[in-house]
Design goal:
Blueprint lengths: L15 H10 L6 H19 L14 E3 L14 E3 L14 E3 L13 E3 L14 E3 L14 E3 L19 E3 L14 E3 L14 E3 L14 E3 L13 E3 L14 E3 L14 E3 L15
Parallel strand pairs: 1-2, 2-3, 3-4, 4-5, 5-6, 6-7, 7-8, 8-9, 9-10, 10-11, 11-12, 12-13
């Protein structure tokens, strides 16, 4: 005789409110791997959004950076150099801590601690160090001169000497400033065309457009003001003011202060003029009113 046995299964009563409360109170507990994956994905997206696209070049040995055709082309063991532009720092093999920005900047360089910004700036530099050239062809022909600063179009363009002590310590600020200097040292030219024609004169200071513009070999001169000492080639003169000592050529040890002071002095020496339009005795009657 068969006996029918009825099987009864009792299911637990689900309480949605309780489950919801538990899930909201402890998010991610039920699915830890999923939560971790989402976090990593979010971080990856954030990192990608912050990076530049395309990514920059990198990984060059010795802390070097090069961007442009043939930049740092002959690098051997030089370190911490930056070359940006066509053939920038092209021949630099062993030089360190140089920065060249512009086509051909520091093209021939093999020295250290130079900064060249502008097409062909410091192009011929081989052994000169601690130079700064900013502007097209600034310090273009410099080879071994050191501690020169040229800022402006063709400033210190021709600075060059086989003796590094004869083309060093010059500062030129302004287009064509100290443009023709070759062996002069310790000159300071601030202004368009200041000390333009200087070749071997040294220890000159020119501040203002055209000051000491035609000076070639004169030394220890100071000119401050538009075209002061513009035709000078003498030594030891001081001119402060608009066109002071304007006509001086070979005169030396003169001091002129004021607009047009000692304007017509040509080769006189040891004169002092303090005031507007003082002239040398030879031309006094010409300006008498």
């Amino acid at each position: 005789m068969k006996t029918n046995i009825e099987m009864t299964t009792t299911l637990p009563i689900l309480r949605p409110n309780r489950l919801k409360t538990t899930a909201s109170r402890c998010p991610g507990r039920e699915y830890p791997q999923l939560a971790l994956a989402l976090a990593l994905a979010s971080f990856a997206l954030l990192s990608t959004a912050r990076a530049v696209d395309p990514p920059p070049d990198g990984g060059y040995p010795g802390g070097n950076t090069a961007e442009g055709d043939n930049a740092l082309f002959f690098l051997v063991s030089g370190t911490f150099n930056t070359a940006i532009g066509l053939e920038a720092l092209y021949k630099n093999g062993y030089g360190v801590w140089n920065t060249a920005i512009g086509t051909g900047a520091l093209h021939e360089n093999s020295a250290d601690y130079n900064t060249a910004t502008g097409t062909n700036a410091l192009w011929h530099n081989t052994g000169g160090s601690d130079n700064t050239a900013i502007g097209v062809s600034a310090l273009y022909r410099n080879t071994v001169g050191f501690r020169n600063t040229a800022i402006g179009f063709e400033a210190l363009l021709n600075n060059n000497s086989t003796d590094r002590n004869k083309s060093s310590y010059n500062t030129a600020t302004g287009a064509f400033a100290l443009h023709s200097n070759t062996t002069g040292t310790s000159n300071t030219a601030n202004g368009d065309g200041a000390l333009y024609g200087n070749t071997s004169g040294s220890q000159n200071t020119a501040v203002g457009q055209g000051t000491l513009a035609t000076n070639t070999t004169g030394g220890n001169n100071t000119a401050i003001g538009y075209q002061a000492l513009i035709t000078n080639n003498g030594n030891g003169n001081t001119a402060s003011g608009f066109r002071a000592l304007n006509s001086n050529t070979t005169g030396g040890s003169n001091t002129a202060t004021g607009a047009n002071a000692l304007y017509n002095n040509n080769n006189g020496a040891n004169n002092t003029a303090d005031g507007v339009r003082r002239v040398d005795p030879c031309h006094r009657d010409h300006h008498r009113r």
